[in-house]
Write a structure and sequence with these properties.
elongated, single chain, 10 helices
Amino acid sequence: MGTGSCECGRLCRIVLLVGFLAVASRGTLAQQEPAQQPPPPPANSPPPPAQPEQPPTEEKKDEAPNPAQAAAEKTKEVTIQAAEATKNLGQAALVKARDWERGWLTGVYVGEGRTMIPLTMKQRREIYLEQTLTTPGAYLKRMFAAGIDQARGAPPQWDDGWGGYAERFASREGQFITANTLAYVGNVALKYEPRYDQCRCSGFWPRTRHAIMRNFLTYNESERQLRPQWALYGGSFGGGVLSTAWKPKPRNAFAEGSRAMAGQAGYGSLLNFFIEFSPEINRAIGATTKRRRK
């Protein structure tokens, strides 16, 4: 009885120990199991947006333009442009001073081969101003005429010095402006052509004949039919008559008007001759313009 009871108690203790060890082992295994991973995303889900890569700050700093260098490049560009513009302006001035065909000396005219087109009132006013006030040729004509008067001593009441020349130049100035104004009014009323046109012919004598003839004849509004230069010579006569208003006595209005018409016949023919042969004059002084032949 005593021996059996001892064995039964020992057996109970062994069973309890084994149960305790089993429980302890289960807890340890549970702690060592890895954490449950989240389920993978669905196959159709879009990928997460990629984050833009930010370039290094130092590279941005290196790529920024240098203000001093940019200013230097801009200054260089402006200097080159200014030099080129100055060069072009100088060349244009030299060509204009050399090329008499442009009309800065001779006044307005129609070049060879150009079609004669009837003028508008605005164009007639512009031509009147250029022939009377705004071209050097108009003043050279008065200076030339005043020099001839000075050499002739006409009128004799004015002295032979610079004071007398100034009086003669002022007299020619008033007479010329009066004559051109009357010619302008007459050409407007008659619708006549106030410009000279270069001859479409070739040869010295045909061109010379054309230059002289056009000093006495001009085109009507058709720009094809020739008519006498009534307005041009009427204006010359009127300017000569009016000049007696300021010239010293004795004065003869008809004689002054007749002399003015004779002066227009001579000087006008000479001016037309100069315009007609201006291409040859250009080549003689170094211009490159050439007269076209047909």
